[in-house]
Amino acid sequence: MAIQVHISLAGAKHMRISWVTSDKHSPSVVDYGTSPNNYSSTSEGEYTSYRYFMYTSGKIHHTVIGPLEDDTLYFYRCGREGPEFQLKTPPSQFPVTFAVAGDLGQTEWTKSTLDHIDQCKYDIHLLPGDLSYADYLQHKWDTFGELVQPLASARPWMVTQGNHEKENIPFLEDSFVSYNSRWKMPYEESQSDSNLYYSFDVAGVHAIMLGSYTDYDKYSDQYRWLKADLPKVDRERTPWIIVLFHVPWYNSNEAHQGEGDDMMAAMEPLLHAAGVDVMFAGHVHAYERSKRVFNGRSDPCGAVHITIGDGGNSEGLAHK
Ligand SMILES: [Fe+2]
């Protein structure tokens, strides 16, 4: 039976459905339609799995469905068995509502955050890194998947990586093995060659998800991709540009002070020249919002920076 179901945008009018089964023979098939228990369409996708020391993951399925109508309720079932799920596609134009919360973890506080989000009529969840706080204990990725399923199976969750996704052990385990296996994002759809950075368009917004934990200097693949992505933005069609990454660039908190400086030096000029409106970060377990800023100063053409890393994880809040 399908567990840990979550969905994400996968190019125009398409959605990726991701889920896990313990049955290795379960098909990567999604049946879906606009009325309950009556599926007019079927898509078959791909699957993967991974090992991490003694842990072997279940079969992780990723199946893209569509083309889908905008702002429409769909009913779907994964792998030809188990319960039916519902999702709503985002609207094609304003107004659109984003829920933004990073550094979630899986505590009672996380549940409280998710309950608050659930009470909002939001279209898309944006997560600027630090999801499960599994911290090498792989079964905690499974419990996180179950915790977020009620929300993440109903609205697209668009995520980028934080330090807690890395989980590398020199000479033994690569970085981001679990994260990349489980939380596949539309990087191929946005001409990126890495799941660690990508972009997507939704309802008048071009959203760019950057990676704080992969190379970002001028000669890096990420920088090159970003430089190629920005000129493609059509401000008539998507007048807003928003950017998410994990480590904040404008941070007055004592926690993680200065950690974003190198990435900011490398990438802020490019994003400023493109007229980015808002940048969201996590990492610091607090809320902070800047004026419009650029190059460390107030600037009427700069972006507003918002840190929203108080999602509820077990490490607690950054008070200073
Ligand atoms: Fe973090």
Automatic annotation (TrEMBL):
Gene3D superfamilies attached to this UniProt entry: 3.60.21.10, Purple acid phosphatase-like, N-terminal
Purple acid phosphatase N-terminal domain location: 4-89
Family of the protein in this entry: Belongs to the metallophosphoesterase superfamily. Purple acid phosphatase family.
Lineage: Eukaryota, Viridiplantae, Streptophyta, Embryophyta, Tracheophyta
Keyword flag Thylakoid: no
CDD domains in the record: MPP_PAPs
SUPFAM superfamilies tied to this protein: Metallo-dependent phosphatases, Purple acid phosphatase, N-terminal domain
Reaction(s) catalysed by this chain's protein: a phosphate monoester + H2O = an alcohol + phosphate
Residue ranges constituting the Calcineurin-like phosphoesterase domain according to the UniProt record: 97-287
The protein's Enzyme Commission number: 3.1.3.2
Keywords noted in UniProt: Glycoprotein, Hydrolase, Signal, Zinc
Keyword hit for Isomerase: no
Entry cofactors: Fe cation
Pfam families: Metallophos, Pur_ac_phosph_N
Organism of provenance: Rehmannia glutinosa (Chinese foxglove)
Protein name (database record): Purple acid phosphatase
Domain of life from the UniProt record: Eukaryota
